[in-house]
Amino acid sequence: MKTLNFSISYEQFLEPNGSLCSALPENVRDTKKALHAYQTMVFMRAFDYKAIALQRTGKLGTYPSILGQEAIGTAIGHALNTDDVFAPYYRDLCTQFLRGVSLKETLLYWGGSEKGSQYENCPNDFPVCVPIATQLCHAAGAAIAMKTKGLHHAALATCGEGATSKGDFLETLNLAGAWQLPLVMVVNNNQWAISTPRQIQCGAETIAQKAIGAGIEGLVVDGNDYFAVSHAVQNALQKAYSGKGATLIEAMSYRLGDHTTADDASRYRDEAEVKTAWENEPIKRLKQYLINEKLWTQQQELKYLDKVNKEINVAVEAYLNEAPDAPESMFEHLFETLPKPMEDQYAELQAQSLLSSSQKICESSSEGVTHDTTR
Amino acid sequence: MIQLVKNDPSLEVQKLTMIESVNLALDYAMSESEDVTILGEDVAVNGGVFRATDNLRAKFGVKRVMDTPLAETMIAGVSVGMAAQGLRPVAEIQFMGFIYAALEQLIAHAARMRNRTRGRLTCPLVIRAPFGGGIHAPEHHSESTEAIFAHVPGLRVVIPSSPKRAYGLLLSAIRSNDPVIFLEPKRIYRATKSHVINDGEGLPLDKCFILRQGADMTLVTWGAMVTETMQAAEALAKQGVQCEVIDVASISPIDFETIVTSARKTGRCCVIHEAARSCGVGAEIAASVSESAFPYLKSPITRVTGYDTIMPYFKNENYYLPTVDRIVTEVLASVKLLAVGKEEQKHVNL
């Protein structure tokens, strides 16, 4: 009898108390980078709180918090090169920010405007993907395009652990193995898909072992440890650049917030579990590490928070003052040029749009004259 | 029959079947642009189960003609990714009956990529799929569900009805910067041959084709049903009823102008399609003709279609598919219904 043996590794460097449980590998030893990672995570968490506040006060649409996911996104954002292609899901604020998606663009997107996906600074990245797991196929398509064109870049897609139950995830994983694609798939295993816990999602001990069935490397990392995620993603990207195929990384984290602002997680999960999860969260441990290494102080933190809050307020102001797209824009980007058969509908909308804006003008001018009419 | 034109060997007039002309268009498009890439199940070494991609792997190499794992969601999904990153994928879904796994990718992404990024990313892909009944195929191989795609804003849905139009329309579909669902009526893949010049000339994706002029009634159809409709028009002509036959070809966005103009001229309109009747493209055409040609109509707009049933297995498929007789009967009923004018009575030869 022949037996095949497979194994899945688990990687962690940084303990929740900020000490190292094993020496940092070469590619994550840059202290400047670690400091920048910490600052980014703090910045993004502050923005996240602000976004929730905007939603609660009616100034933003439904918004999915990234609370507790900051290390994963920041590590990916640091590891990717400009020429790589990123295919996000909807909890990738940190990576997108580091790729150059502005806070204003993020707010516009969740604030109900298509302008929010124009991404001036990373024009090849895919927009936020809401239909679960579908973005993995797009990243594989981007990886095929790179291979076809002989470019030594990589595509990276993220998803939650819920997405790994879907065909799109499994079909992409399978293709990535069969075709040795320059692709990195990072699963943010934050334990909850809305109200569905990890154990209902899948009977396997790890998500990463799904890679074994596809013939590619799979590994688990501590998703609350910036160094562990960074190390794994950098290695996976290097492998992809050198034509050695795809990698599946399962980053263990915890969704500290609700699924979105439309969700109330207290309906389905235990407060005690959330309390424990807060002890493992990613920002606190990196902060302690940096303080231990004399790279950061509480005073610097206060100054930095002041700075980022100002930046956030500037972005919020810009978002709130942004004029909405003309209603006609719904026709203007549907096809390359407006098909002739649709001209009637376009004219219909234009008439409606004109009518409603002239009504607004009438209303405002009549308000102005009410005081001195004696009819 | 092969004949040289202008001493250019590429411009020979060839007599081709539809499947051969699909192959020729793919060949031309791949020679024209390195971005054109073919993928799908059994498309490379085997050349496709209908041979639409025959010899292309040998000619253009493994990087441009790719056999994929058997997974339709993935085929559509990676095509979206490839298209957004500068390639022009032409993906084959082996039969339309297996396209449903790809719907989320096509509806939620291919159709929306341009709009949701305000033109930053686009999705110039073509999904080719053989569809329709009449070849005694197994279950799930004979449906006509083009209306599903026609209902989706942002997709172009194109259906050729002859070798020549297959060549020209497929070339335009591949060159188009919009996503195109290109449905090939497999019943007529090899039914007839027509003259095709391999000159790279595309046909417009927003125009109907008037295949036959007539003053008494407008027959609107597409795909394989063009054959039966033309035969019905011939038979009706012998009875003195002159039908105008329109091949819609691009069922979305659809050129209502040509259809409405014809209906205004003839005053009567019948839509013939293989797909089930309810919520079919025929209903849309009838509504538009009614909205835009109502004062000109002499009889109600009618439809000859498949029934609102599951497509029967092939022992009974001929009862499902509209026949020449059904079309003739429907047209005669329409013409008789309000054939009150003397001129028309003479015409109808009652």
The radius of gyration of chain A is: 24 Å
Gross CATH architecture of the largest domain in chain A: 3-Layer(aba) Sandwich
**How many domains make up the 3D coordinates of chain A?**
2
What integer is the average pLDDT of chain A? 95
Find the CATH topology of the largest domain in chain A. Answer: Rossmann fold
CATH class placement of the largest domain in chain B: Alpha Beta
Biggest sheet of chain B, in brief? 7 strands, mixed
Spell out the CATH superfamily of the largest domain in chain A. Thiamin diphosphate (ThDP)-binding fold, Pyr/PP domains
User: What letter string, H or E per element, gives the SSE order of chain B?
Assistant: EEHEHEHEHHEHEHEEEEHEEHEHEHHH
β-strand amount of chain B: 15-25%
Strand order of the largest sheet of chain B: 4-3-5-6-8-7-13
Number of helices of chain B: 13
Largest interface: A-B, 45 and 48 residues
What would you note in describing this structure?
The complex is a heterodimer of chains A (375) and B (350). With 375 residues, chain A is an alpha/beta fold. Chain A folds into two domains: 9-321, Thiamin diphosphate (ThDP)-binding fold, Pyr/PP domains (Rossmann fold); 329-372. Chain A contains 14 helices and eight strands. Chain A has helices at residues 31-56, 70-79, 93-99, 103-110, 134-149, 167-178, 198-201, 210-214, 226-241, 271-279, 282-292, 298-321, 329-332, 343-369, and strands at 9-11, 85-87, 155-160, 183-189, 192-193, 196-197, 217-222, 247-252. A six-stranded parallel β-sheet of chain A has the order 1-7-8-4-3-2, sandwiched between helices. The longest helix of chain A has 27 residues, at 343-369. The relative contact order of chain A is 0.14. Chain B contains 13 helices and 15 strands. In chain B, strands 4-3-5-6-8-7-13 form a seven-stranded mixed β-sheet, sandwiched between helices. A five-stranded mixed β-sheet of chain B has the order 10-12-11-14-15, sandwiched between helices. Chain B has a three-stranded antiparallel β-sheet with strand order 1-2-9. In chain B, α3 (72-84) packs parallel to α4 (103-110) and α8 packs across α12 (324-337). The longest helix of chain B has 15 residues, at 18-32. Chain B is globular. Chains A and B meet through α5 and α6 of A and α3, α4 and α5 of B.
